[in-house]
Amino acid sequence: MKGLILAGICLGCLVGGAAAALRGYRGDQEYKVLLGALAGAFLLYTALFAALPADLGFLPRGAVEPAASVDFWNGALVLALVFHGIWTFTYMAWTGPTIRVLRALARARDRGLTMREILGEFESGGQVNALLRRRLPKLVGGGYLREEGGVYTLLPRGRAAGGIAARVKRALGDLGPP
Amino acid sequence: MLKGLLLSAGIVAIWGGAALWLLRHLRPGSPLAVLAKSFAPAVPVFCLAYALTPATLGFLPAPLAATPEPLGTLDGLLALALFFLTGVQFYYHFHNSITLRLLAEFRRVPRGAMTLAQLEEACGLERLLDERLRALEHARLVRRRGDRFYPSVAGRLAAAAARLTRAVLRLNP
């Protein structure tokens, strides 16, 4: 129980720390800020776990895990799994087209939107659509693609990542865009 | 706690294999409904397994198997829920990720090269949005009347949660 309580406290610090760091961050690799927040949360968790007694001064006997190592790693696992959920939801809320559609529909309220109007949320007057606008520079910057004269070419790193993606999608029964 | 963790991990691993089989063969309109319904029996199975098995599971050292039973059960249920949610998130990440879809698409074309126009066509914006809207309808987050789409109450709540997340973390694409 000590590990779970400390993990909960450190997750709160993680969200606060990430929010504060992202306010001042001017780059385009926000994932580094989130990973840094996770590292900081884990360090804090380790320090608090080492410094505090097994019952945190108030836990009843039935809520104390006798094996400190089990308690520690159990809390660390919960911290990691909940962070993964926060990370996934953050990126969905930030870049996901599904959430973007929902937000557009929520703004439209009782008026509703047609498919053409929803498409308009993603297109920007002839420029590359919003789905690619953010993703392509990151794929080029991350060494997955090379851009030359308007042609994008897969680099070895991108080929490896694409291969893994294709194999996992086949295993999921998803053979590509419907 | 270790007994609960191991039992929940084992149950989720078995469920994961069964869920993948169901998804491949049923090709449901709402994978989430299939995942949730197939996982529901896991909770009573876990509780039963926890009650019927020894604290050491036959192989754990005694010092690591001394967790009070209520604490171990609750912690195991928490782990079960987190493992399930993580599994669902991984499924949707691979199923929905546009970046991974793009990279997989690059592998299919000659020399792994595409122009922007080819990319726009491969990305299939209208087809992708049609796919997502159908998924949202199946999940009852969106309703359709004629050619217009409307958010359900659940859809508005999801949009509000996303708006709050973006506001807290100051995220703007």
N-to-C CA distance of chain B: 42 Å
Largest interface: A-B, 85 and 83 residues
Strand order of the largest sheet of chain B: 2-3
* Biggest beta sheet summary of chain A: 2 strands, antiparallel
Please count the helical segments of chain A.
Answer: 7
- Helix and strand sequence of chain A: HHHHHHEEH
Quaternary structure type: heterodimer
Low-confidence stretches of chain B: none
Question: What is the radius of gyration of chain B computed over CA atoms, rounded to a whole number of angstroms?
Answer: 22 Å
Number of domains of chain B: 2
* Number of helices in the DSSP assignment of chain B: 8
- What's the number of extended β-strand segments of chain A? 2
Q: Decide which structural class fits the backbone of chain B.
A: mainly alpha
Spatial strand sequence of the major β-sheet of chain A: 1-2
Helix content of chain A: 55-70%
Percent strand of chain A: under 5%
Give the CA-based shape of chain B. elongated
Question: How many individual β-strands of chain B?
Answer: 3
Which parts of chain A are unreliable, with pLDDT below 50 for 5 consecutive residues or more? none
